Amino acid sequence: MKREQIQAPKGVSEYVPPRSASFEWIRDQLIAPAKSAGYQLMELPVFEDTNLFSRGVGESTDVVSKEMYTFEDRGGRSITLRPEGTAGVMRAVIEHSLDRGQLPVKVFYSGAYFRAERPQAGRYRQFYQVGVESIGLDDPAIDAEIIALADTAFKNIGLKKYRLEITSLGDAESRAAHKVDLVAFLKTLDLDEATQARAEFNPLRLFDDKREEIRSKMASAPLLMDYLSDSSRENFAQVCSYLDALGITYTLNTRMVRGLDYYTGTTFEFVHRGLGAQSGIGGGGRYDGLMEVLGGQELSGIGFGLGIDRTLLACEAEGIDLTKTSRPDLYVIPLGESAKNFAIKFIDGLRNGGAIVDCAYGDRALKGAMKGADKSGAKYALVIGESELSSGVGELKNMETGVAASVTLSTINSALLK
Ligand code: HAM
């Protein structure tokens, strides 16, 4: 009896060949600028004490109130699969006293994150992020560096149809002044009970409401940008002038609401035009109070999370060719046992020299093996049979042009194939 097949859980993203090569390439591209700016790897658990997120990310957020995968472990502890990376990084920085050393602490990370959202294109229950955090110094040049790292990564990947939106959520003084007027404004609106409750929990959330009637009511709401203290305004102007100096274009979005509550000061999002509703390919900002909330010192930090899944979708939407990112340089087809003996050593030498080389295993006939070469996407194919072994010369076929050239086997090296 054939047994029932088991399927992946609903709404997860997973990558299998050949698309997994594109995923891997994008992840590496998103990390590369951070590495070249001296950020170091942080590898953390995918599950944490639930309090880390309820305290760090904020009870008023959808992420904490509706979307966490929370369970009791065998020891009766409340555990949550990480919905984001910043709170865990901060926990680890405090726990390992990294904040007592050289500041800023500069780290990057990448991995799986979990949010029990309603699945749709570009929105998954397990998804992947690359993140960076710079913790311990409040310097507008760091804000600009962080934004530039993300922008450079997207540019290097070849993305064009995205924009960078930035704003400032100011310091505590600016936010307090704004809150007074915003709450007074919201009281003048005729809101249903659930919306009123949201407004009481966190009035800023109403800027994020997608319903047209609320949007039109919020059109005349007081904006935080108009309440920035002198020092917050100067700080933000400095960030903008560094971005200008770096040639990074951005638009001001004074109504931006991030889905996590820890943000203060410079806050930003990268939005792609080809993705429909789930258009955020990355976002981040400064968080002044997070370390203290989690039991550490009063130090500021800034960072971002870039969605690997959505960046891949954005590349596909823009028609960026990702198929060449990990294709073999050479596909070797040995015909017969003595050719196979020769081939395994020949291939090993080329691989050690840095070439990506695949081989037709399973003693396939020439026709089937050539199909394999085609499917592998290899740049070159090389058949090695009795005559090639005795002459030491083979036909190196360029799979793109179809042109074959006679080459002495001993002269084939990785440089020739690249
Ligand atoms: P976030 O905006 O919640 O920020 O997530 C960052 C990125 O992760 C989003 O822009 C999006 O590309 C991707 N993403 C989020 N949720 C999903 C989902 N359900 N499916 C697919 N992709 C998703 C953070 O997580 C912050 N920790 C970023 C940060 C770091 N802020 C400061 N430091």
Estimated helix fraction: 25-40%
Distinct ligands: histidyl-adenosine monophosphate
The tally of strands reads 16
Strand order of the largest sheet: 1-5-6-11-10-9-7-8
- Strand fraction equals 15-25%
Q: What structural class results from the helix and strand content?
A: alpha+beta
Distance between the termini: 50 Å
List keywords for this structure.
15 helices, 16 strands, alpha+beta, elongated, 418 residues
Explain what this protein looks like in three dimensions.
The protein is of the alpha+beta class. The protein is 38% helix and 22% strand. It is built from 15 helices and 16 strands. It has helices spanning 19-36, 50-56, 62-65, 86-95, 140-157, 172-187, 193-201, 212-218, 230-245, 290-293, 308-318, 337-352, 366-376, 386-391, 414-417, and strands spanning 40-41, 47-49, 69-72, 78-81, 105-114, 126-135, 162-168, 251-252, 264-272, 280-287, 301-307, 330-334, 357-359, 380-384, 393-398, 404-408. Strands 1-5-6-11-10-9-7-8 form an 8-stranded mixed beta sheet, with helices on both faces. It has a 5-stranded mixed beta sheet with strand order 13-12-14-15-16, with helices on both faces. It has a 3-stranded antiparallel beta sheet with strand order 2-4-3. Strand 15 (393-398) and strand 16 (404-408) form a beta hairpin. Helix 1 runs antiparallel to helix 5 (140-157) and helix 5 runs parallel beside helix 9 (230-245). It is elongated and about 90 Å long. The two termini are 50 Å apart. Histidyl-adenosine monophosphate (HAM) is lined by residues 84-86, 115, 117, 122-124, 127, 129, 131, 133, 259-260, 280-285, 303-305, 307, 309-310.
